[in-house]
Amino acid sequence: MGTSRASYEFEGFDDRKAPPVKIPGQFFSEVLPRLKDLAEVKLILEVFKRLSYDEEPAGGAYRYVTESELRQDRKFLAGIGKSSRDGERKLAQALKMASVHGILLPVPVEINGRKETWYFLNDDKGRRAKEMIAEEGPEAVLSRAGQEQSVHKNIFELYEENIGLLQPLLAEELKEAAEEYPPGWIEDAFRIAAENNIRRWSYVRAILERWRLEGKEEPPVDTDSVEFRKRYRR
Q: Which fold has domain 25-145?
């Protein structure tokens, strides 16, 4: 009887590749043992990741996710479904189940005539956000978060604002970067490129790659220094 080989072998965690994700201890003690659907488990972990990356140090913003932004994450959909359509179906079902189980708080909103549902984590902050929307409307949450219609700018918007017209051949690479790096990292990398007047995606990508390998420097480095400019030039 032969020995089967695993289809995937993890090389080990590397703290330098991505920021840590905050997960409440109650999830492991009270929630996870009761969950039966794998897609729902993966969805909840994805929400923890996104809200952890988006959280501001001051803690003043109310963070949420939407079905539309999750549907754009092709890697996530591939992880829960056999096909893109199957992934979208399972995503919708998982969002419904997580809401029924009280893990996520679905809040229907309408912004500029466009209707959608915001999903907050069912914690103190999420419950306050739901109450605020009920009393003052979704604009109150957006104002508090210092945003207009999304937590972070789309990577395509950042590219066209800071570099130029997006070429179709580059779109797939930008999608992969959006899945691999936290939104805050991407925004900071584009900002640094603009401050140094180097309007090339290869420069932005080099900054992100270095942060992934060596960790993102905090506080921000001196972008005007000769050392910094040399570091990211080819």
A: Arc Repressor Mutant, subunit A (1.10.10)
Please give the structure tokens belonging to residue 80: 């829960």
- The pTM of the full predicted model, rounded to 2 decimals, is 0.59
Which DSSP helix (H) or strand (E) runs through 117?
A: strand 114-121
CA dist 120 and 129 (Å) reads 8
Q: 135 and 77 in contact (C-beta within 8 Å)?
A: no
111 bridge partner residues? 114
- What do you get for the CA distance between the two ends of the chain, in Å? 52
Order the strands of the 65-66 sheet from edge to edge. 65-66, 114-121, 104-111
Per-domain residue ranges for the chain?
25-145, 155-232
With CA atoms as reference, report the closest residue to 95 among 114, 111, 113, 76: 76
Cα 16 from Cα 232, distance rounded (Å): 18
Query: pLDDT per residue over 174-229, tens digit each?
Result: 888 887 888 788 989 999 998 898 989 999 999 999 988 887 754 444 444 455 45
Round to whole Å and give the CA distance between 154 and 73.
12
Q: How far apart are CA 193 and CA 166, in angstroms?
A: 16
> Cα–Cα distance between 37 and 30 in angstroms, integer?
15
CA 105/CA 95 separation, integer angstroms: 10
Q: Please check whether residue 98 is in contact with residue 43, taking contact to mean a CB–CB distance below 8 angstroms.
A: yes
Which helix (H) or strand (E) segment holds residue 139: the answer is helix 138-145
Structure tokens at 138: 């979704």
* One-letter amino acid for residue 24 of the chain: P
- Token representation of residue 192: 């640094």
